[in-house]
Structures are given as structure tokens and as C-alpha cells.
Amino acid sequence: MAEKPKQGRTELLIEDQNVEQAKIRHRALAGQIFVGLFIIFLWEFSTRIGWLDSYYWSSPSTIVRTGWVAITEGTLLQDLAYTSGATIAGFILGTVVGSALGLSFWWSELYSRITEPYLIAINAVPKLALAPVLVIMFGIGFDSKVVLAFLMTVIVASIAAYSGVKNVDRDLEKMLLSLGARRHHIFFKVVIPSSVPWMVSTLKINISLALAGTIVGEFISSQQGIGRMILYAGQILNIDLVWVGVIVLSVLSIVMYLGTVWLERLLMRGRTPKS
User: How far apart are CA 266 and CA 270, in angstroms?
Assistant: First the structure.
């Protein structure tokens, strides 16, 4: 009977902590919105009074008008879908293939020791420098953009998965083997679950790398995409349209980042306490 008051105080303390965390999240969101609106106001005000050259820096109101024209009379939405599709496809392929490659190192120490230095060497290669060659190999269409996004993410994902494999509890593996467990049982029941946090930790990085690879591919040669639109706008000296592309890419990167945050919480559900 003496444990009930103590348990009640613990539950009350946890509830108070959750309420406090909720307040912090709400205040942080309000602060983020305020800072964003202030930056937009300061940008607009500075261009109107001449602190910033409106030709080079445009202005929020002009960008909105130009963006609306690009949506209603141009191909902005199609370009956005093209860039988003290539980025997401490359991100998914790179993450899945890279994670599978990193996890495969668990099966053989000899295999992992032979492969690891080459994996590190490939990671050191500037993949974006190979973009012109890849565009020539795979064409100026959708495939080359997906390949670039894939190459930007696959090595990072494999190294993260391999790091997870190396941190698996070896004593637990030996104990399970002594109890009669098969290696594939240990792989699926212990190795993969233990490596998930390591693989998940790269999602936010990989989505940014995938987007960068797609945009570089569009800069080099493409018939569609936000990168192509920005390049074309720069060639005809339409600075307002360049800023439209930059803002659209910024919003797209934020949306994709939030998507990976949601995916991370989904995959880590039950592994870490809720904040």
C-alpha cells in the first residue's frame, strides 16, 4: 500500500514534464513563425527604401507575383513534381540499397574487412564531379537525376548501417548461438533492430544530399525540373524567376526534411521516450 502514493507522484511528475515539453514546442513554433515573418518584412522593407538593390535581391511581393505567373502560365508545378520525384526515388533507392549493403557486412568479417576501405574511398570521391559523365551515360532525362541522387545517398546509408552492425552486442550473439539460434534468426531479431537507430540517423542528411544531386543533374542538362528553371531564368536575366526557384527549393527541402522527421519518429516508435 505504501507504493501507491509514490507511484502517483511519479505519474504526476511525468505528466508535468509532458506539459512543459508541449509548452516549449508551442513557444518554439511561435518563435520560428515570428522570425520568418520578420525576415520577410525586413526583406520587403529594405528593397522598397533602397537598402537592397531590388534587381539583384528582388522582393517577397515580386517573388509571389512571379511565382503565381509561373504556376498559372508556366510549368512550375510540373518542374516541382519532376525534381521531387527524382529526389525521392534516389533517396529511397540509396537508403535501401546502402542499408542492405552495410547490414551484409555482419555475415562475414573477412568480407567486411576487404570491402570497408573501398567503401571509405568511394565515399571520399566527389560524386557531383561525376555528374557530367553520368548525364552522358544515362541521358538528360529522369534516370540520370535519380542515379545522381542515389549515388549521393547510398554510401552514407551503408556506412551508417555498418556502424550499427559493429555496435551490436557480441555477448548477446554468443549467448543466442549457444542456445541454438541460427544466424539468420540473430540477423533479423538482433542485428537489424540494433542497427535501425544508426540507419535512421542518416535520413535527414540523405534527403538533403539527394536533393543536391538532383539539382546538380538538372543544372548540367535537363528538360524539366526546378534546377533547369533556375538555370534558364539566369540565362535570360530574369532574376525574379531565379528567386522563385530558390524559394521553391527551400520550401521543398523543408517539406522533405519534415517528412524524414516523421519517418524517423515512426521507425523509432517504442525505442525512445517521447519528448
Answer: 9
Give pLDDT < 50 ranges for the chain: 1-2, 273-275
Please write the tens of the pLDDT for every residue from 236-256: 888 999 999 999 999 999 999
Task: Render pLDDT for 13-31 as a digit per residue (tens, 0 to 9).
Answer: 666 677 777 788 888 888 8
Q: Are 103 and 248 in contact (CB under 8 A)?
A: no
Residue 174: alpha-carbon gap to chain centroid: 36
Q: Are 157 and 206 in contact, with CB atoms under 8 Å apart? A: yes
At CA 174, angle to CA 173 and CA 177, rounded to 5?
A: 85
Domain locations in the chain as residue ranges:
22-51, 59-267
Which residues, in sequence order, are CB contacts of 207 under 8 Å at separation 6+?
Answer: 87, 91, 253, 256, 257, 259, 260
Class of domain 59-267: mainly alpha
pLDDT score recorded for residue 274:
42
- C-alpha cell belonging to residue 150: 542515389
91 Cβ contact partners less than 8 Å away, ≥ 6 residues apart: 149, 153, 206, 207, 210
Distance CA 164, CA 162 (A): 5
